[in-house]
Amino acid sequence: MSGTVPPKRKPEPCPVCAKPAQAEFQPFCSTRCADIDLGRWLTDRYAIPTDEDETEDEAPPRSR
User: Domain ranges in the chain?
Assistant: First the structure.
């Protein structure tokens, strides 16, 4: 081992407000920003795209 310590990376910015993220709230900078992000998921402002054409109600029943 060479005994050298690699330089610390800059923390990634908070995805809500762009301030440096805090280890305690990763990847956010605070509880406030984490709560804002959760609220966006719960109110469908964020969504994960899918390639499915059918909704769950329209899908044929699964055989066992």
Answer: 11-45
